[in-house]
Design goal:
binds flavin-adenine dinucleotide; single chain; Uridine Diphospho-n-acetylenolpyruvylglucosamine Reductase, domain 1; Uridine Diphospho-n-acetylenolpyruvylglucosamine Reductase, domain 3; 3 domains; alpha+beta
Amino acid sequence: MDAASLSAGAKAAAERIRALDVGMLSFREPLKEHCSWEIGGPADIFVQPSEDAQVLRLLRFVREEGLPLVVIGRGTNLLFADEGFRGVVMKFGRRFSDFSVDGASIRARGGLWVPRLVKNLVEAGLSGLEHAAGIPGSFGGLVTMNGGSLRHGVGERVVEVRAVSFAGETRAFSREECGFSYRNSFFQRASDSPESRWIVLEARLELVPAERNDIRREVLGILEERRGKFPLDKPNCGSVFTNDPSVYELAGPPGKIVEAAGLKGLRVGGAEVSHRHANFIVNLGGATASDVLSLIAEIRRRVHDRIGVWLECEVRYVGADGTLVPASTASENLRPEGK
Ligand SMILES: Cc1cc2nc3c(=O)[nH]c(=O)nc-3n(C[C@H](O)[C@H](O)[C@H](O)COP(=O)(O)OP(=O)(O)OC[C@H]3O[C@@H](n4cnc5c(N)ncnc54)[C@H](O)[C@@H]3O)c2cc1C
């Protein structure tokens, strides 16, 4: 898309960013093309850097222009506003995906696609990240979300993360400094406030040498199980609600809680609670962010009425002003359906 349809302020910023070498640029970029739910309006400026120097130049530009910046990976855990975003979205370009092996240690760049990473690890005969098989995100997103499955998270294997702050400071974080907890990390918590955000550039993981065929068998088994369990034929964003240990103890995993409340098949507009797995919301076609937020609000209300628990979202919502909050928080600003 070109810059012609931007507001006057955004158009002026677009002209200035064109003069800089910050990576691939587009304007009024439809965010639904960068989100596995296929939902979201346009971002004023969309940048795909290929190297650290371009990221640093971009950070300096947004600071000088006073523009809001949001960093995304593959958009597999994000819901973008229907209005899109009046600022700059940064997504690593394809070239930001280097991968190298040194004994049992690997280093990967933030833009590497997790399925590719898992394949590389099988080929390298390194075990420890099989649980991430089938997670469709970027490596930077995986580290930020401490993603994983089967009660594991990538953080268990992290030795060091190299990241740059929005203020332009690049530094290495030890595993302890990354503050990993269930589907959470320092980098995710820091993103609550635009001033304290960091970009995960790359990370080093320590794995365990093992037989390639054993690792491959494990990965294929996990992929097979996921294909049977999840509604992968319709646009979705993986698990919507987080599996909070205290809620789990009380009532089980979120999918079971939503199912027990009789909410499979509940629909708002084009968004529906999956019949196959109740912790998934699928886009039946033409779903909007408001449909998804209204559906989340309705599920939370009905579950709360039933068992007295407010389910919280793993999926994060990107508002038109660049706020980044759990979708459950964004859904609280809506009125329940029909009221
Ligand atoms: C079909 C399906 C299955 C899934 N299964 C699982 C699963 O089993 N386990 C699991 O944990 N998740 C799962 N997910 C969710 C999702 O894939 C993970 O959370 C993944 O780690 C998100 O990566 P991403 O690159 O898509 O991040 P995005 O969704 O683009 O972003 C997520 C958050 O991370 C931030 N972020 C992304 N990249 C960076 C970076 N480089 N630096 C700083 N911040 C960054 C964003 O700002 C945002 O706050 C699934 C999703 C789908 C669609």
